[in-house]
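hiii so um. not sure if this is the right channel but i have a protein structure encoded as tokens and i wanna go backwards to a sequence. like what aa goes where. can anyone help
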């Protein structure tokens, strides 16, 4: 007899109804905060290597990226450095935890390797467009 375990949306923890994001701009980067989440649903960051977000919250996060791209600091940073959309990989869904992972330049200050829950993470402003493209492609997918 074998027991087969599967994940996916049926087994994922539901997203809270009021998932607020905060944004702070400084030194050519934006820091996204997610203070109202449990550790199981917090974004996961491997500093300098990638970002993982709950699949149920990707559409809301895409809206946050859109708002960043309307900000004056974003356009000032893009004028200095256009960025490269290919620094982010296409999203990869992990059916064990219900997260979608994007490898790319994201930081949170933790020196330890591996994806770790983070209440806040930072993306350089020129790389926001590339992340938005990858998130939108995953959602369209």
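sure thing!! here u go:
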């Amino acid at each position: 007899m074998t027991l087969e375990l599967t994940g996916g949306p049926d087994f994922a923890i539901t997203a809270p109804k009021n998932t607020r994001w905060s944004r702070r701009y400084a030194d050519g980067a934006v820091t996204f905060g997610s203070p109202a989440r449990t550790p199981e649903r917090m974004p996961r960051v491997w500093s300098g290597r990638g970002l993982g977000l709950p699949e149920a919250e990707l559409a809301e996060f895409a809206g946050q990226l859109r708002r960043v791209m309307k900000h004056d600091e974003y356009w000032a940073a893009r004028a200095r450095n256009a960025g490269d959309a290919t620094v982010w990989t296409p999203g990869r869904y992990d059916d064990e935890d219900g997260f979608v992972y994007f490898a790319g330049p994201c930081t949170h200050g933790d020196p330890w390797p591996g994806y770790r829950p983070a209440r806040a993470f930072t993306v350089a402003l020129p790389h926001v467009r590339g992340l938005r493209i990858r998130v939108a492609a995953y959602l369209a997918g």
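oh and The two ends are 36 Å apart (CA to CA).
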